[in-house]
Structure formats: structure tokens, C-alpha cells
Amino acid sequence: MYIFTDIYKLTVDQGKTYLLRLINTAVEDILFFAIANHQLTVVGTNSSYTKPFKTDYITISPGQTIDVLLETNQPPSHYYMAARVYSSAKGVDFDNTTTMALLQYNIGKKSTTLASNPPFPYLPFYNDTKASVNFTGKLRSLANEDHQIHVPVNISSKLILGSLQI
Hints:
By secondary structure, the chain is mostly beta strands. Helix content is 5%, strand content 37%. The chain is built from 1 helix and 11 strands, in the order βββββββββαββ. A 5-stranded mixed β-sheet has the order 1-9-8-3-6, covered by helices on one side. The relative contact order is 0.24. The model has no long low-confidence stretch (mean pLDDT 86). This is Plastocyanin-like domain-containing protein. It comes from Acer negundo. Pfam families: Cu-oxidase. GO terms for molecular function: oxidoreductase activity. InterPro entries: Cu-oxidase_2nd, Cu-oxidase_fam, Cupredoxin.
């Protein structure tokens, strides 16, 4: 591996926590995403808070947003961020390119040499259904006594739509 000169670089300060809103703008593809040597804390999806959980990777569907907290708790260096398609369909062509960017720690005026071969994150294999389901199965509503969600249980009106009666 080597550092590309025209790759996107996200510069962060060590010891801080950043809120990242990840958006999958792919039209048809579910994506796996991860940052090398960093865990992400999922705190929301599609503009709704979720019960926070830590994860090494996320699975994000087309058009979906996922809010994660990134703790910059690693030694100052460069770390690859990467995403690849999840595709479980057999015999269907898909773009199996892995897209990358760099997370780079701000080292200020220090003379620290940054890694010439940044670590690459673990991403599940393109057809790893278990990994995809494992991630999405962890998403939980924030609902509890402090954050109640009221769902009507007494239905008093019937709607007729076309020939379907509800």
C-alpha cells in the first residue's frame, strides 16, 4: 500500500471525538465501511437516535444515513478509511472496487514522521451476509422511559383504499 497524492484526507486532532454523518449515495449498492484501527460508535440512523453501540465496521444501505462517533485515540499517523459493496446475489455483476480515503492526525509542528504504509481497515468479504445482518441486527430504538414512543393501540377508524380494507 502507498499513500495516493490525490486521495481525500480527513484531518483530525488526537484525543477528540468527532460526529460523522455517513451517507450512502450509491444508487443500488449496500456498502461496508470502516476506519483502520478505530472503532465507531453508532448513535443514529436516518435522522433518528439509536441506542449507541461500538463496531469495527458499518453496513449502510442506498440512501441511508448513519451517524457515528469517531474517537481519535490512536497514535498520530495516517489510517485508511474504506468502503466496498456488499452483494450476495450469485452471478450478478457489481462494482467490486474498494474506495479509500485517509484519516490523518494533525501533528502540528511536531517532527513526527507519518506512516508510509497506513494500516487498512478490516472490511467483511463482499458476500458476507452474516456480517451485514450482524450489523443491522444491532440497531435499536432509543425508546425507554425517558424517550417514550407512543403508538396508538385503539383503532377507531377504518380506511378503505381501492379494494383493500384496513
